Amino acid sequence: LHADRVPVGLMSSVVAPEKPTSNTMGPKEVELILVKEQNGVQFTSTTLVAPATTQTNSSGEEDRETWGKKIDFLLSVIGFAVDLANVWRFPYLCYKNGGGAFLVPYLFFMLIAGMPLFYMELALGQYNREGAAGVWKICPIFKGVGFTVILISLYVGFYYNVIISWALFYLFSSFTGELPWVHCNNTWNSPNCSDWADNSSVSDIYKATPAQEYFERAVLHIQDSNGIDDLGRPRWQLTSCLAVVIVLLYFSLWKGVKTSGKVVWITATMPYVVLTVLLLRGVTLPGAIDGIKAYLSVDFLRLCDPKVWIEAATQICFSLGVGFGVLIAFSSYNKFTNNCYRDAIITSSINSLTSFFSGFVVFSFLGYMSHKHNVALDKVARDGAGLVFVIYPEAIATLPGSSVWAVIFFIMLLTLGIDSAMGGMESVITGLIDEFKFLHKHRELFTLFIVVATFLISLFCVTNGGMYVFTLLDHFAAGTSILFGVLIEAIGIAWFYGVDRFSDDIKDMIGQRPGRYWRLCWKFVSPCFLLFMVVVSFATFNPPIYGSYMFPPWANMVGWCLAMSSMTMVPLYAIYKLCILPGKLAYAITPETEHHLVDNGEVRQFTVSADLL
């Protein structure tokens, strides 16, 4: 008689363990007994042996797909959080708001709000193993906020994919001996086109550089539109580029994290390679050091301006990617015992360091442009699409081997954009298939439906007047609404589900409760910060503009309807839940698995505990 005890994973070819019916997580063991009988025939007897300790998952889903490797998850989170805004937004804010002094409010808000909220979403998704809506089984009345963030991610996808298609268009255009945005003698140029040398007198506001006209007249064809009420047909060139982007997204997502986790090995790492190469080239250019000095120059007097603090807080809110449901979706595919605390610290820190690092790359080239054309740095420094599709291509065009540098740069933009777009779409897909279980068996078809629907809506953004639609979506889709969504999320977890219980959940996963600092941030600091940001967002609202074009009132109304459509999911779902649940409000604020406690008069969310302090 010979007996061996081995993990079930090693014996999968011999015996198939029965699916456990309990709520336990972790490895099972099988006791395998080999008995040699007569005539050389061997028989096996197996017994399931429970391990000494088990981990409990609140959802009880044992068969949920998980990341192939831990690094797949980390790269996916980094790839999503590090996007185009890290290159075109943060460096300009830093330069405009006191250089190195801007890091003071930026790091302050990172510590009191950015990291705690990032950590909260990773832990929430990992423990409950559901998408943005499904996790709210912990407090059913707040499930509306899950649909809010899903809608926001969907809306952002309508225009974010268009940015990637612009980058693809530029990439194809770069495979030439001479880049098409160098001179003013092209068919798309207007009489107002003027090289920098002829345009050094900035008093003539009607002059436009070749790169600016290439973007607006050759790529966007905005000269053929009179405004948002005169869109025209989709441009076939941009439509083709958009179709390529959609196909890339589909085949990156159709099989779930098993495929997307491999794609990010390229899309999340390539930007760092390219940024390093561009920095090594940029610092060798004349005037580059002056640009970097302007980027880092410290002006602490700027810290007396409240606008500096508001812009730092806004940048934190949007740069980490909190509130899109992506962090919840990605972490829901982690193993239950994964150290989400360490992941939150690593990935949020890498995101901020990338923003800071990209500033050196951007301002080395801006300093070069300022030196080359003998104009002040603030005449070339800008943020947004104008930086990466006008100023930077213009700088690259003056370098030896400009076509090669252009190809490298636009490959970086593609990879920066594609994994962020993947994250947003994964938030929508995971959130909905976890909420509507029948979609699990049809993930490929449902993913196809989502990407095709996104493509059809995005066609409005690749028409002659598509830039106006793009600007409207960018202004309303994820502004105040996402701040509102994260605020409700923080209140739901900290004040209704309870910080103590949430801390216990984290202890179940990683073996230790979060420190007092994190609990205080979740309970008081982060909600107050978010409430302040929502108020500021409403108070400082300005209607969208594009250049000198003012949007008509009906367009602003459409924009507000878009923003409100996501925010109203919170009260609408709360009303719906109160209508369908029997009798007591307590049912709506108690985890679904504990409704029997309500019958006994135990509503733990409102139990006062000194453990927080």
TrEMBL record:
Keywords on record: Disulfide bond, Membrane, Metal-binding, Sodium, Symport, Transmembrane, Transmembrane helix, Transport
Topology term for the membrane: Multi-pass membrane protein
One GO cellular component, as annotated: plasma membrane
Localization annotation: Membrane
Main localization, broad class: membrane
GO biological process, one term: amino acid transport
Disulfide bridge positions per record: C184-C193
GO molecular function list: metal ion binding; symporter activity
Transmembrane segments: 73-91, 103-124, 145-172, 236-253, 265-289, 309-330, 350-369, 404-424, 445-470, 476-499, 520-541, 553-576
Residues that hold Na(+) according to the record: G79, A81, V82, N86, S319, N351, L416, D419, S420
Family listed: Belongs to the sodium:neurotransmitter symporter (SNF) (TC 2.A.22) family.
PANTHER family, alphabetized: SODIUM-DEPENDENT DOPAMINE TRANSPORTER (PTHR11616:SF38), SODIUM/CHLORIDE DEPENDENT TRANSPORTER (PTHR11616)
Protein name: Transporter
Organism annotation: Mola mola
